[in-house]
């Protein structure tokens, strides 16, 4: 059987760069390799935006070297051809270094791309737009869903318009805040403390601050603006149970278990997700959550219903994770945010559902091909007489 060639793209110019490296390897590259059905090409984008492709990077140990950035500088960058598909153009050796006295470029045709870039330029839809134009199947949400979900404020606006419950919030851009700071502070004053102040385009809780009173508000906003030019301020939920629901699928969706984070800090932060209590090298650790969450069946049903409505409202395909806030005093369930590239793809949860890492990754590749095939039936261009009829001066 001919193996499909899958490119895993990770790294990038993002605050979540290192998390992306972990996600790319655990579980994506490891599972693709373990299946024996794929020829895996790692495409790593440095923090400076340089692109490299070398199979030595299929091993996470490469990135554990203290000098791996220096090692990369000694390698040639990969070139990519986006022309009715995606091809990697791997530079040959210089003539003097080749045993035969010459060396040709090697081209590798990519069948499917597996994006593993969290945050800016990847998860925000930028990479998906590039892959759409290249006409290559890719795993996960498409450009539009990714762009909307990446903007926490826009996500809430869209969901609110569709009747999906979200907590009260205020958002503003840096330029708008600088011009009318007091006006936005007055809007925020109508919200109930505690508040959460977040950069709208970042995940892994980077740049997020919990504010208990007015005194810390402006400093929290300043911190958020350090990472983003748009900020969200929202009400916190007291008596809180936080749960999350991983979902996969296109037209038909499948749910993993409703999961409850067991964070030790005041909010579920980067350390809780990736470092606290985990085994070294295991990616997102397995001791931070309760699976399935100990909530009532009524609440679990509501979470699944709201999860599917959110998934479809945003136009998600492939995979996403929907996060929820449950107010234990009122029993209200709110959608908090949507993550179109969950760290580690929540393999730990799917395994408890009976889906192995290899099965999950293989399913996601199939879903990418399914969506791509469906899109081939759409017409994107048409012929017209406009160029013949347009008037204007002749080219001199």
UniProtKB/TrEMBL annotation:
Its EC number is 6.3.2.4. ATP binds at residues 152, 196-198, 204-205, 234-242, 336-337. Its main location: cytoplasm. It comes from the Bacteria. GO terms for biological process: cell wall organization; peptidoglycan biosynthetic process; regulation of cell shape. The keyword GTP-binding does not apply. Keywords: ATP-binding, Cell shape, Cell wall biogenesis/degradation, Cytoplasm, Ligase, Magnesium, Manganese, Metal-binding, Nucleotide-binding, Peptidoglycan synthesis. It catalyses: 2 D-alanine + ATP = D-alanyl-D-alanine + ADP + phosphate + H(+). Pathway: Cell wall biogenesis; peptidoglycan biosynthesis; Glycan biosynthesis. Mg(2+) 1 binds at residues 323, 337. The keyword Protein transport does not apply. GO terms for molecular function: ATP binding; D-alanine-D-alanine ligase activity; metal ion binding. One of its GO terms (cellular component) is cytosol. Mg(2+) 2 binds at residues 337, 339. Binds 2 magnesium or manganese ions per subunit. InterPro entries: ATP-grasp (IPR011761), ATP_grasp_subdomain_1 (IPR013815), D-Ala_lig_Van_CS (IPR000291), D_ala_D_ala (IPR005905), Dala_Dala_lig_C (IPR011095), Dala_Dala_lig_N (IPR011127), PreATP-grasp_dom_sf (IPR016185). Pfam families: Dala_Dala_lig_C, Dala_Dala_lig_N. The active site is at 16, 204, 344. Its cofactor is Mn(2+); Mg(2+). Residues 156-369 form the ATP-grasp domain. HAMAP family: Dala_Dala_lig. PANTHER family: D-ALANINE--D-ALANINE LIGASE, D-ALANINE--D-ALANINE LIGASE A. Cell wall formation. This is D-alanine--D-alanine ligase. It comes from Candidatus Taylorbacteria bacterium RIFCSPHIGHO2_01_FULL_51_15. The gene is ddl.
